[in-house]
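ok so I'm stuck.
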Amino acid sequence: MSEIPAMKRVFVTVGTQLAFDRLIEAMDAWAATAEGVEVFAQIGPSDYQPRHMAFKGFVTPGHCHSAMSAADVIVGHAGMGTILGSLELGKPVLVMPRLEAKGEHRSDHQVATAKRFDGRPGVTVAWDESALPGALAAAGERAARAGIEPTADPELIDAIGGFIRSVKRSRFLGHRRITTDGRDAGGLRPAGSQ
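replied:
not stuck anymore, here's the structure
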């Protein structure tokens, strides 16, 4: 029996681009033993048809938001939309990264994302399907009550703005403005412009 106190609803999502059968099969196996837990999965273009949890291939953005809001725990691929959406709602999220070596994605960028978020409040990582049940139990025992704000931190916004301003200034350094007939117009022009 895998019942976890206070975990009554789990929403599973694999995003909209690719199937992630390894995650869906592992969650279906877990759902078979999760007494009293309602599991709904958005499975994408999967070849695997779950037998122990409700599912749809795709859901509308509104349905996805509703399912995330109603869930006690969100389980998904290590996509930024899944992670940030969960944290914005203050929901604990368990992610399992897709692996390029298994043909689940075009690169291992989800492994890098999972490494970056691993251990942060509200985020649990299952590095493979065998770790999923234990990671799910851990995710169910804690909540992302602090979550994240729906807007960026002002310091981050200032830092990005400063970077953009510095790039704009550097585009003008060392380049003279040249007229269309090739004469020096005496001003600065952006690099690469005519």
